[in-house]
Write a structure and sequence with these properties.
The chain is an all-alpha fold and about 220 residues long. About 80% of the residues lie in helices and about 0% in strands. The protein is built from ten helices and no strands. It has helices at about 1-20, 20-30, 35-40, 45-50, 55-70, 80-95, 100-110, 125-155, 165-175, 180-220. The longest helix is centred in the C-terminal third of the chain and has 40 residues, at about 180-220. It starts with a helix and ends with a helix.
């Protein structure tokens, strides 16, 4: 509950900063990897729309997109109308993303991660960037989820009480004396396993002794 309150407070402060100065807010974003985006406390685009309205959300995405267009400085670039339409498509299609998702996607495009632009940028090119970025984002999320699942299973597999074997046996014996049927069964199983291991150990020792005496008698002969 306390963590949820902290997260809400962090999200609230981010929304306030975005509302006061969308341009400065967007310039301050600096994600380097998708994992950075997952760990950030930036609000989702859908959350921005819900709390600040579509105009603020559009303005933020426009600032980010404008930086990318300026970087490429393509001969065939986009008109204001085309930019506005593309921004609306991004917001509509990827409302579950954060603004640092958008910035990272555009940074990746600047690094030519999604291919060359051949001196032309339009809405179709930009939406293809987001499609590729979203594939990578989903793959990273799946890997994270799988690794967390493995870590959880490994933690679950550990003895919950942290007892050593001797302590475990002592606890079983104490519970068995009190008539705990599960403890009695567990103790019987433990005894049978111990007995089997002892028998195997005895057989192995006997085999070793036989080999020793056999070889020793041959040497004496």
């Amino acid at each position: 509950m306390e963590n949820e309150l902290i997260l809400r407070q962090q999200e609230g402060s981010q929304l306030a900063a975005l509302s006061n100065s969308p341009e400065q807010y967007c310039k301050a974003l600096n994600p380097r990897r998708i994992e950075d985006v997952f760990l950030s406390h930036e609000p989702l685009i859908g959350t921005i729309i819900k709390n600040l309205g579509e105009t603020k959300a559009r303005a933020a995405v426009v600032y980010l997109l404008a930086d990318a267009l300026e970087f490429f400085n393509a001969a065939e670039t986009m008109s204001d109308v085309q930019v506005a339409m593309t921004v609306d498509l991004i917001i509509e299609e990827y409302a579950y993303m954060k603004l640092d998702d958008i910035k990272l996607c555009l940074k990746n495009a600047m690094k030519m991660k999604y291919g060359k632009i051949y001196n032309r940028i339009d809405g179709q090119v930009i939406m293809s960037w987001f499609k590729e970025y979203n594939k990578e984002r989903c793959s990273t999320a799946d890997n994270q989820s799988y690794n967390e699942h493995k870590a959880h299973n490994a933690e679950e597999a550990k003895p919950t009480n942290g007892l050593f074997y001797e302590e475990y046996r002592a606890e079983l014996e104490s519970r068995a004396k009190d008539g705990d049927e599960e403890a009695i069964k567990a103790l019987e199983l433990s005894n049978s396993i111990s007995e089997m291991l002892c028998q195997r150990k005895f057989v192995k020792q006997k085999e070793n002794l036989d080999k020793f005496y056999t070889s020793d008698s041959k040497r004496n002969f």
